[in-house]
Structure formats: C-alpha cells, structure tokens
C-alpha cells in the first residue's frame, strides 16, 4: 500500500512540475534572473491552482510538502536539495531513481528520497552541470563536477550504468573538525595530537593513509593548521577541499579535458609548476597517479614538510601502493633504488581507519627509519588502544 501511495505521489509531482513550469513561462518569470521570493510565491500559487483545478484531496501537510518539493525542483536540485542542506549527511548516493542512500556519521543508510524516473535523475544531473559548461550524454556518459558549495559530484548514465543513472556526492564541509572535536569524539588522543604537531613543526614529510571515508582530507586539513605562519604553502587538489587558515596559501586545482578531449591539466603538471613558485611546502590532496614521482623528488630536494594522502588500508600497504604507482607511471629504476627513494623522501605515515560502528580513528603513526637491509623500516610513534 505504501509503495502504491508513493508511486501516486511521484506521478503527482511529475504532473505538478510540468504545470508549474508552464505557469512560470506564461507569467514571463525567468528563474535564474528573478528575485527568489517572487519565484517561490509564483510556484506556491501555481501548485495550489493546479491542485484546486484537478480537485485532488490533499491535507495541509501534504500540500506544504508538495510546494517545498516543487521549489526544490525548480530552483534547486530536486530530491537532492534537502540532503544537501542537511549538515549531518556526508555522502549522497543515487543508484537509479528509487535507490537513494546517505552516509550519516560514517554509517550508510537508505534515504526516504526518490526520483520520479531515470529522466528525472538525468534532468537533475544536467542542472548541476549547466553552470559549469559540462555535458552528459551518450557521447560523454560520465562526468566529475563540483557544486557551488564545493561538494564533489560524479555522475554516470546508461549505457555505462546498467541499472539507471547514478550520482555520487561527497559533500564539502566548510566547518572542519578541530583537534578538540576529534579528541572529544575519540578519534585520537592528546598524545597523538602532540606527535603530529611536532612532526609538522619540524618539517617532516607526512603521508596520511586510509581507506574510503576514513577522514584523510579532514586529517590533512587539521595538521596543516600547525604550519608556521611565515611559510609559503602551495596546495594541489583535483577538487578543492582543503581550507587552510594560513596567511600565505596558493591553491591550485587540476582541470579535466573539455568536450573535445583537450585542455586537461594533471596533478603531475601542477606539482612540476609548483616547484617553480618558490613553495616552502607542497600539500597534494591525494596521490593517485604519476604525480607521485614529482612529489617524492620534491620531498628529497629541499621541500621538507610536504604532505599528501593515499588510499591504503595499512602503513605497509601505503608503501606498496606508492611502488605500484611508480611502476605504472613508467618510473624506471631497480627495486632497491625505488626503496631508497621512498624511504628517504617520506618521514612519517599517519594511518586512519574506520571501525565497524562508523567511528573514524588514528590507528597508528609510524616513522620511517631506513636501514641498509630494510628501506621501509618503521618505528611506532603512536598506536591507538585498538591496535595494541
């Protein structure tokens, strides 16, 4: 019964949306150029008129919900809008029109929201892309983009997505957690913070390692706050998320190829260029590809105190991942030479984990102390109680 009622409501939304759009067009109201209050009033009147004309019995609560949905549909990103406004939600995942999931405090759960059909999902994706001059069609069926608030969006449509169009949104939070917040949440201890702050101030080269959703960017942002104020910092990211409260920061961002497949600027190119900009430190949002070569060489040639993150489930895994990235990037050197390069460039790895209950935690901090027989010899500077 509930499914049928929901289906009827989705059909009502579809019909009402078309009537609202027609009414706005008849009244000559351009949504992008008109005062928001005026548009909302026009939408409200159009909804009430449509329901009255069709004599649809709706309670005040349902009427108010329909009006809110139409405002979100016309002026925002439809069913995504309430979830984007909710500060407790970190990720929004749309697996077709009827399967919408959200992550709240590290726990994935099904959301109440749903779309009318595949076309509705695609319409919302295109609305996101419109101001960015990006396209999504059969010739270009997947895209990365960024919402005005900085949230990252990935969208992919059929024929690549077999079960309907998919949207993945990693929300951007301008209010990053402080050290006190993380200590209070049990994500780290005072001792852990002391070790990290000392490493930053002593210009150690740091790699933050962790799996998906462990808070790597949050941690990188946190430890960056302890960089001395008289240093020049360059940040390089695929999608700007770092918010450094520092007086001298130059922020660089990669650029994807245009619709003709041209104009792409990679993280590797930006690292090379950054070295010509007299940085005291380079902060690379995440190591994913050949930029690792330039980053390691920069760490080895006078840019101490540089930092980055990497996707790995353990400290040893992080080093193996770097080796793999070097190999696939065509870095031609012996296993011994690669070991020496990595061991001499990196000083410290901060390992993050996410526990089954969704809690994020600094599980370990290790210092690389290369030996002749072991370039990856590690010494623990900190271990959480769960790791001991």
Tell me what you see in this structure.
- It is a single chain.
- By secondary structure, the chain is of the alpha/beta class.
- It has three domains: 1-75, no CATH class; 77-172, 2-Layer Sandwich (Beta-Lactamase); 179-383, P-loop containing nucleotide triphosphate hydrolases (Rossmann fold, 3-Layer(aba) Sandwich), CATH 3.40.50.
- It has helices at residues 2-26, 36-54, 60-75, 80-85, 118-129, 179-184, 190-201, 216-224, 267-274, 291-300, 315-328, 335-345; strands at 89-95, 100-104, 107-110, 142-146, 152-156, 166-170, 206-210, 233-237, 249-253, 281-284, 307-311, 348-354, 360-368, 378-383.
- The strands form two sheets. It has an eight-stranded mixed beta sheet with strand order 9-8-10-11-7-12-13-14, with helices on both faces.
- A hairpin with a 2-residue loop joins strand 2 (100-104) and strand 3 (107-110).
- Helix 1 (2-26) packs across helix 2 (36-54), helix 2 packs across helix 3 and helix 9 (267-274) runs parallel beside helix 10.
- The mean pLDDT is 88.
Q: If you consult CATH, what is the topology of the largest domain?
A: Rossmann fold
Encode the helix/strand succession as letters. HHHHEEEHEEEHHEHEEHEHEHHEEE
Low-confidence stretches: none
Strand content: 15-25%
CATH class of the largest domain: Alpha Beta
Please give the alpha-carbon distance between the first and last residues.
52 Å
Q: Give the beta-strand count.
A: 14
Number of helices: 12
CATH architecture of the largest domain: 3-Layer(aba) Sandwich
Radius of gyration: 25 Å
Helix content, binned percent: 25-40%
| SS content category | alpha/beta
In the sheet with the most strands, the strands line up as: 9-8-10-11-7-12-13-14
